[in-house]
Design brief:
Blueprint (H helix, E strand, L loop, with lengths): L2 H33 L23 E5 L6 E4 L5 E4 L6 E2 L10 E6 L2 E6 L6 E3 L2 E2 L4 E3 L4 E4 L2 E6 L1
Parallel strand pairs: 3-4
Antiparallel strand pairs: 1-2, 1-11, 3-5, 5-6, 6-9, 7-8, 7-10, 10-11
C-alpha cells in the first residue's frame, strides 16, 4: 500500500478519535451544567417547622423526571417510596433505594423519614436524619424525584 494512503487513513482515524472525544466532553459538560445549581439566588421553599400545623398537608405531587406529575392524597395511611414493587410509590431511579423513604401521620400532622437509603432523603434541601414534620409548601427530594407537599 502506498505511504500516502496509509498517512490518509491515519489522519482519518485521528480525526474520528478527536470528534468522538470532543462529543463526549461536550455531553459531560452539558450534563454537569444541567445538574448544577443556578448561580442566581433562587427563592428557597419554606423550611419545615418542628411545630408544623396539624392537617396542613393534604396531598403530595410526585414530579418524576420525564413523566407527568402524580397527585397522591394523604388519607391517613403511610406512603412508602422506593424501587421495590411493595412500595406505594415506585420510583425507577438508580439513585433511589429499594425502600427509600416514608411519609406517615403522627399527632394530626405528617412526617417524612428516611428508611436507611444510600443517597438520602432531602426536605427543603436539608438531609433528613430523623423523622421530620412536613407541611404545605415543603419539597422532598428522593433521588431525581421531587415531591411537593400541598395543603
Amino acid at each position: 500500500m502506498p505511504p500516502i494512503v496509509l498517512f490518509a487513513l491515519q489522519a482519518l482515524v485521528l480525526l474520528l478519535l478527536y470528534l468522538f472525544v470532543a462529543r463526549a466532553v461536550r455531553a459531560v459538560i452539558r450534563d454537569v451544567r444541567r445538574d448544577a445549581p443556578s448561580r442566581r439566588a433562587a427563592p428557597s421553599p419554606p423550611a419545615s417547622r418542628p411545630g408544623a400545623r396539624p392537617g396542613s398537608a393534604s396531598q403530595l405531587v410526585v414530579h418524576r423526571p420525564e413523566a407527568r406529575p402524580e397527585i397522591v392524597a394523604l388519607d391517613g395511611n403511610e406512603i412508602r417510596f422506593g424501587r421495590s414493587r411493595d412500595c406505594d410509590i415506585v420510583l425507577t431511579d438508580d439513585f433511589v433505594s429499594e425502600r427509600h423513604a416514608r411519609v406517615f401521620p403522627r399527632q394530626g400532622g405528617w412526617m417524612i423519614a428516611d428508611m436507611g437509603s444510600t443517597n438520602g432523603t432531602y426536605l427543603n434541601r436539608q438531609r433528613v436524619n430523623e423523622a421530620s414534620p412536613i407541611s404545605g409548601g415543603d419539597q422532598v427530594t428522593i433521588g431525581k424525584t421531587i415531591v411537593e407537599v400541598r395543603r
